[in-house]
Design brief:
The complex is a heterodimer.
Chain A (H helix, E strand, L loop, with lengths): L8 H23 L6 H40 L7 H35 L1
Chain B lengths: L2 H8 L6 H11 L1 E10 L6 H9 L4 E9 L6 H7 L3 E3 L8 H9 L6 E5 L3 E3 L3 H5 L8 E8 L7 H23 L10 E5 H6 L10 H11 L3 E12 L5 H26 L5 H29 L13 H12 L5 H31 L12
Helix pairs in contact in B: 7-12, 7-13, 9-10, 10-13, 11-13, 12-13
The chains are: A mainly alpha, B alpha/beta.
């Protein structure tokens, strides 16, 4: 996050992907004669892997949280009284997918805005 | 005779990096003028000046802009042997005071530093090599709170550890740090003069300046090893002023620059993602999570406030370990989640005021 600005949602995914793509980008830059700090690239790659594991842990925690939460949701909507584990699994995968889909949508919207503004 | 006087006697109407290298063996004087805007900063300006005077690369000149202080800031600064200038009337903002001093700068580089900020002894020396590339117009370093006691200082400490260990370094690798931080940044003097000094049209002059430089095709760098230590808000009163300024400044800059940013690779995506996150996260923290928890009468949903703690912890630990501050960082993590929610309140208020109601905040309120 940027200090003072809330949120680590799709921003977290954005910087994670950017860091994971950094070795490829740096290689291309090097082939074109640019200067690359491989030490920094390696550092950020390891950090990104750590953050990825952190996101995986978040995803796992989400499952733990959603099991009791889903019970109450089910009770609230009176869906039959029997807890179904699939609800929690569904919400967990949907949350992860929603993050990537939203990120993709924001990035595509930015590119579209750029093309529209250029054409004007 | 101190090193500063020694340089003055040599006479250097335009001190460049090349010229300074030739005399660096004797004095290690850097071709840098430091501008310290100060309005009633008698309590902190001494530490700032002394940290500048203890640099391994000593600035050619330190100019304190006493912006019509009433607490003797100017006299205190003068007693430490630096140049003190005073505008005829209060300039009304940090940017105004900095631009007032720009006419007095005769070096190739200029540093802007807040009067409540100190530097690591090698901060200036570490920033200088970033300007080996002639296209680089600005460079900034890492920021860490000098005092870490209150919940707000602790929250900010974790924010900074996270941002400067991960986000900002990725931004730099892609050639687009989001902001060259206003509390401590170095600029090529000609680049600052070319844009007319530090802009006053928004409340976040550092963001405005950084984004303006990008749109002119100039580069900005982040040097993680150049560390500065500002005083962060110790109480809610100061925090409120700071967050109002930052959140309104962010919204104002997005409104002002969004078209131009679309042509800046990586930055356009970073800003778009930051905007989305800030608005959506604010709505989630302040409305969605409590509403769902109430609706389903289940407090488990409130864990959503801290659900991303594992992902947050990785950069925070990576940033704290080399500084041997792991314990302090871990103890501070809960404060981060409180601060993040408070950030959300101020951000939504800023979006509401600036975009929905069209009420632009123009008063610059100082808050550390």
């Amino acid at each position: 996050m940027t200090a003072g600005v809330p949120g680590t949602g799709i921003g977290g995914l954005f910087y994670l992907l950017a860091a994971l793509l950094l070795p490829v980008r740096s290689l291309l830059l090097r082939l074109r004669g640019g200067r690359v700090s491989w030490r920094m690239v390696a550092k950020l790659l390891f950090l990104a892997i750590g953050v990825f594991l952190g996101i995986w842990a978040t995803w796992w925690l989400l499952g733990l949280v959603l099991v009791p939460a889903a019970k109450s949701v089910e009770a609230a909507i009176r869906a039959g009284g029997i807890f179904r584990r699939e609800y929690a699994e569904f919400v967990r995968w949907a949350a992860l997918l929603a993050g990537f889909v939203t990120l993709a949508a924001v990035l595509i919207a930015t590119q579209v805005a750029r093309l529209v503004i250029r054409r004007r | 005779m101190d090193k500063f006087e020694e340089r003055k006697l040599r006479g250097a109407p335009q001190m460049t990096k090349e010229k300074s290298l030739s005399i660096s063996g004797m004095t290690r004087t850097a071709p840098v003028t430091v501008i310290v805007p100060a309005f009633n900063e008698s309590g902190s300006v001494v530490d700032t000046i002394q940290s500048l005077q203890r640099q391994t690369a000593i600035p050619a000149e330190i100019i304190v802009v006493d912006d019509c202080s009433a607490d003797g800031t100017g006299d205190i600064a003068r007693s430490l042997g630096v140049t003190v200038i005073r505008p005829p009337a209060n300039t009304g903002s940090k940017a105004g005071a900095q631009t007032f001093a720009l006419a007095h700068v005769r070096t190739e580089f200029v540093i802007a530093i807040d009067a409540d900020t100190t530097l690591a002894p090698d901060a200036i020396e570490r920033l200088l090599p970033a300007f080996d590339d002639p296209n680089v117009a600005a460079a900034c370093g890492s920021v860490l709170p000098r005092r870490i006691k209150s919940v707000w200082e602790r929250g900010r400490y974790v924010e900074y550890l996270f941002a400067f260990t991960f986000y900002k370094q990725v931004q730099d690798q892609y050639g687009a740090p989001l902001i060259s931080s206003g509390c401590f940044s170095m600029y090529r003097t000609e680049a600052i003069r070319a844009v007319g000094g530090w802009p006053t049209r928004t409340l976040a002059e550092d963001m405005d300046l950084t984004w303006t430089l990008y749109q002119q095709g100039r580069a900005v760098r982040f040097v993680s090893g150049a560390v500065c230590y500002p005083l962060e808000p110790r109480n809610f009163g100061f925090l409120k002023k700071q967050l109002r300024r930052w959140s309104h400044g962010f919204v104002q800059n997005v409104r002002l620059h969004w078209r131009g940013l679309l042509d800046v690779p990586f930055l356009r995506s970073a800003v778009a993602v930051a905007c989305w996150d800030a608005v959506v996260a604010s709505v989630v923290y302040l409305m969605l999570l409590p509403m769902i928890a109430l609706l389903f009468r289940n407090p488990y949903f409130l864990l959503g406030y801290v659900i991303d703690v594992p992902a947050i912890l990785v950069p925070v630990i990576a940033g704290a370990l080399p500084r041997r501050e792991l314990g302090r960082a871990l103890v501070s993590v809960p404060s981060f989640f409180i601060l993040r929610t408070v950030n959300a309140v101020f951000f939504l208020k800023a979006v509401w005021a600036e975009i929905v109601r069209g009420r632009k905040l123009v008063t610059y309120e100082k808050g550390h």
